[in-house]
Amino acid sequence: MVLFFQIYHRMTFLEIVPCFTLMINQAVCHQCIELAKMIRLRYHILNIHIEKIVDYFKRRTINFIEIGLMNKGVDRLYSRQLYNLCYICTMHHHLTKLIKLYNETFGVILSLMFGVSFVSTVISLFYCSGGLQANQIDWIRIFLPCVTTWIYVVDTVYICNTCYTTIEEANKSGELIHQIDTNDPEIRDEIEMFSLQIINEQVEFNAAGFFPIDYTLVFSIIGGVTTYIIILIQLSATVV
């Protein structure tokens, strides 16, 4: 608590403004994360149902010629699997459309958020490097930029991880449906249609179409931050 008041009293107006930017950035980030997690959860539920269908056909090797010889109870259960597969295919399509709507709604906001995170991280790290090179190091003024930088980094990695795992969960459905072993033409046609649907839709989170939101973005930001800090340090050395 004492450290907090020391930092607060020694902060200037220009040092307080980034704190408000950080809070707004965090609010936007966590809103986008929660929405992406909701979509991921629904993909996960669909995959659980696909796994149940796979287990059903693993336990029962059913040939479509033999369907007419089965009793009504088994026949109804078998028809239920086809109905579930059709329903899963439809729901997967709606979730894919939801991701596209997500990109249209939050794409510009996310691009601005990543831009603010990038610029703030570069400035904060450069400020810290300059403070560490001073004759008298003011640790309190260095502490705040380090904390804000850490928060920006955590938020960026968190949202990239959430979007990446959501896409992985969506693509997992395509792998699971090919584990269904059956000779029934209706189910095989549904599997083929489901596969084509997944291939053609190509689900991904992106920031207004500028770049995908996954781990490649994290690596790009790390490379960009490193490059700009080196350039700024070299420029400051030449000016001095």
Level of helix content? over 70%
- The number of E-state strands comes to 0
| Unreliable stretches covering 5 or more consecutive residues | 1-10, 62-73
Q: What does the main sheet amount to?
A: none
Count of discrete alpha- or pi-helical segments spanning 4 or more residues: 6
Structural class, please? mainly alpha
Rg, rounded, reads 26 Å
Taken from the alpha-carbon principal axes, the silhouette is elongated
Mean pLDDT level? 80
Beta-strand percent range: under 5%
Give the helices and strands as they follow along the chain. HHHHHH
* Total tally of structural domains: 1
The rounded distance between the terminal residues' Cα atoms is 38 Å
Description:
It is found in: Cell membrane. InterPro entries: 7TM_chemorcpt. There is one protein chain. With 240 residues, the protein is mostly helical. The chain has one domain (42-239). The protein has helices at 2-10, 13-59, 72-132, 139-177, 185-201, 215-239.
Give structural attributes.
240 residues, mainly alpha, cell membrane, membrane, receptor, 7TM_chemorcpt
Quick summary of this structure?
The protein has 240 residues and is mostly helical. It is built from six helices and no strands.
Present the secondary structure layout:
Blueprint: H1 2-10, H2 13-59, H3 72-132, H4 139-177, H5 185-201, H6 215-239
Helix pairs in contact: 2-3, 2-4, 3-4, 3-5, 3-6
Transmembrane segments: 106-127, 139-160, 215-237
Pfam family, one: 7tm_7
Main location: membrane
